[in-house]
Amino acid sequence: CHAFHSIGNIHVSRNHLLGSRREIQVLWHLGYERATNDNDVLRLQMHNRWEGDDLRWSTRFWRRLRRRSPSGDSTPAKTVLLCMDILLFLYQTVTTVAYIRQEHPSYWPSHALGMITDAVVGSSVLGPLSRDFGFSNSLSRNQPHRFLTSGFFHSGVIHLLVNLDTLRRQASWLETGLGVPLYLTTFFVSIVAGNFGHLIGANNPFDQTLCLGSSGGICGLYGLTFVSLIKMGNRGAAGRIARGMATMMIAGLFIENMSIASHFGGFLGGTIMAI
Q: pTM for this one?
């Protein structure tokens, strides 16, 4: 007796069930009539569509997200950056409200809503995280950590949402094609490069005005995109990236509190990382 078990549209013998479970998994996911070698397994692993016998809830959750996404691409590094920005902004808002309450105890709780709104929109009173980790030309000379940490905090919810949306819209192949290490390294190096650009382009090297935001890192990813597109021979798309950066810098001439030098420094940092 030669028993068969039906899996979807694929018929697998009991011998295969007992002897080649990996082959059955390949057949199940790919729908091939037979898998002759490990190339099919490798193809699945390269596309992040097969996790073998891993039935953990976290694996099932990410698999479900990938199947629901239009492109099917998984971008965990970008997701981590987006979530990190949101969580740090929430923490920044809470600490700012606590600081304002401590400085003006008579306003609490009668003016609690105003304090919270002020902290979310962009407080005129800087909270402890902004003061301790924001970049400034003067303070960063003796506190070099500010060159990097300023990229993790934002001046208000509008600033945060603009950066989140810009980062979210960037091409997924920056991470899936070029790799997570280069993606993250470019982002962090470009934050530092953007602050160096602001320092070099400043009229007052001892200015204590604080700069916040991940715009330098995001512009660095655009620099990485620009060089990568040129290397791939897609000069038309690369030209659109360059025109977009030029438009943003020209707009910065008319937008208050926007550092053009920081954006340009970040973009230059990204192009250097791509080369």
A: 0.73
